[in-house]
Design a protein that fits this description.
By secondary structure, the chain is mainly alpha-helical. About 65% of the residues lie in helices and about 0% in strands.
Length: about 375
């Protein structure tokens, strides 16, 4: 399988080089010459949110990973505003992203971080993709009428609506050029590079909280820019979960939007990984990171740590089994039974966490080198 060729894509190169120049220097020059009004910033932010969330909650979590199901109206909204991001069609984007997850950090990964930060960030888009037009890994999307409609018309939508809509808003406020610059070019450049940071910065800086063997990192700064996509270690470990930030305090507007759509009856079958499975992955990642310290620990200390880890694994397995059982009992309407099972699952999870944290603290206290 080839993901890139040596043939340069001059359309992509021209667009990706020209838009940020116009966005930065054109917007600054026009604003200095004609003045700034608050509607300009408001237009840019509203467009950034609508388009950005259509990429994260739509292109990414709905279409690429099937993390939830959504109504046709929701799909159509994401299809229209996602096209305005100028990141190709849902079909192309999702197919490429699925390849990335399947071959992450390997040669067939289209934006393999091991080829360098700038390759993963933008340079990979400068070359033609020989796999375009095949989509063997997206047969489900080939059957989706909204996806196929958008695939045919995404370039028209991007040009007409992506730049025409903000220009029309500018006409309303008496300055169509400012509307075009702020809501069009500046917004496109901002959405582009914030999305690109997921492929570059979130594979370079941050904590490998859930999978120490992958380059994916949890990066709160990238999460802030991308509506939650920066919790990337979690996402690569559990790509089908509709959340990226799993805690209430994690900045993840995409999961909040999906939950809002669920409350409105426009989304359903939200997929989420059981808490014990998540904690087990966190433990394994921490132990993988600290494992070299076992080699320099004393024999007694190393044996005690191994026993703690083994006990934690057994309790995690027990918690996972109880979690599954309570879900089955709840689905069958066994109210008293599933509540009792859930309490037992939570207790097993708490016990596993205690053993895990003790083992990690013991390992942390061991010097990194003899």
């Amino acid at each position: 399988m080839e993901t890139t060729t040596t043939k340069k894509d001059w359309v992509n190169i021209g667009f990706l080089m020209l838009t940020p120049l116009i966005a930065v220097f054109g917007t600054a020059a026009w604003t200095l010459a004609h003045g700034f009004e608050w509607w300009m910033l408001g237009l840019a932010l509203v467009m950034y949110f609508l388009v950005g969330l259509s990429i994260t909650a739509g292109y990414h979590r709905l279409f690429s990973h099937k993390a939830y199901e959504a109504s046709r109206a929701t799909e159509a909204f994401f299809a229209v505003f996602g096209a305005l991001a100028a990141q190709n069609s849902i079909l192309q984007w999702s197919s490429s992203h699925r390849i990335h997850h399947r071959y992450v950090d390997r040669d067939w990964d289209p934006y393999n971080i091991k080829r360098g930060f700038w390759w993963a960030h933008i340079l990979w888009i400068f070359y033609k993709n020989p796999g375009n037009g095949k989509y063997e890994n997206a047969k489900d999307l080939l059957k989706n009428p909204v996806v196929m409609w958008q695939h045919r018309w995404h370039n028209v939508l991007m040009i007409v609506a992506g730049f025409g809509l903000p220009a029309l808003v500018g006409v309303y406020f008496g300055d169509w050029v400012a509307g075009l610059l702020w809501g069009g070019f500046l917004r496109v450049a901002a959405v582009h590079h914030s999305t690109f940071f997921v492929n570059s910065l979130a594979h370079t800086l941050g904590a490998p909280s859930f999978d120490a063997r992958s380059s994916a990192r949890d990066n709160p700064f990238v999460a802030l820019l991308t509506f939650g996509e920066g919790y990337h270690s979690f996402h690569h470990r559990f790509p089908s979960d509709f959340r990226n930030g799993i805690h209430w305090y994690h900045w993840d507007p995409s999961k909040w939007l999906i939950r809002g759509l669920q409350a409105a009856g426009q989304a359903w079958e939200l997929r989420r990984v059981a808490a014990p499975t998540i904690e087990q992955a966190r433990m394994e990642a921490a132990m993988e990171t600290l494992a070299p310290r076992l080699d320099v620990a004393s024999r007694d200390r190393a044996e005690e740590i191994r026993q703690r880890v083994a006990a934690a694994r057994e309790k995690f397995a027990r918690a996972v089994e109880l979690w599954r059982r309570q879900a089955e009992e709840r689905a069958e309407g066994l109210s008293k039974s599933w509540r009792q099972t859930r309490r037992e699952a939570r207790q097993a999870l708490a016990d596993a966490r205690r053993d895990w944290k003790h083992a990690v603290s013991m390992l942390t206290a061991v010097p990194a080198h003899a």
